[in-house]
Protein: Succinate dehydrogenase
Organism: Chryseobacterium rhizosphaerae
Amino acid sequence: MAGLTSSTIGRKYAMALSAMFLLIFLILHLTTNLLSVLNKDAFNTASDFMGYNPFVQFLMQPILGFAVIFHFAMGFVLEIKNNKARPVKYAANNASVNSSWMSRNMIISGAVILAFLALHLYDFWLHEINYKYVEGIAPDAERFWPELHEKFADLWRVALYVISFVLLGLHLAHGFQSSFQSVGARHPKYTPVIKAFGKWYSILIPAGFILVAVFHFITQ
């Protein structure tokens, strides 16, 4: 790992791999959350399995936590090193023409998403830790849907989630394609497919999460 992150290319490669892992996680997470809109019992069953399965709790969850921390840490490190490498901006550089706003401000969207993750962990992960390990309450497979539903009773929380997922979509719009480029997945035949898939991914995934939040708010 130290060798992989000792150079700029290595850090970009490692960051891309962590991004791909998180892209897969987002699909799985959204799939589970959409069950709360489609079928209450199915959502409770899936959440109960995820919440008490040892493989998920004690292997996949720590790996996910490491991937999130690593991805954001590498992003901040790369941003700092890039800024140090070009302390004087070229006067002739027209940033709006040479690159998109999101590609120039990935660090900003990343910081906002990181702040949102802190709220998300407070809402759900800390609650689970307290429920299972602090208070030691007996498992209840019927509790998950009501707990999720209750979280979106307040308009301010729904608004924060919607704003965060819009920014996530913008972040993904650039990050999806960038992660594949960083691992060398560039080819005249496949790059257009990756771009098209990344575009739809960056729209549908955030839209799905927004749908879940709005659904639970309007059905209070």
Remarks:
- The chain is about 80% helix and 0% strand.
- The chain has a mean pLDDT of 88.
- The longest helix spans residues 54-85.
- The radius of gyration is 19 Å.
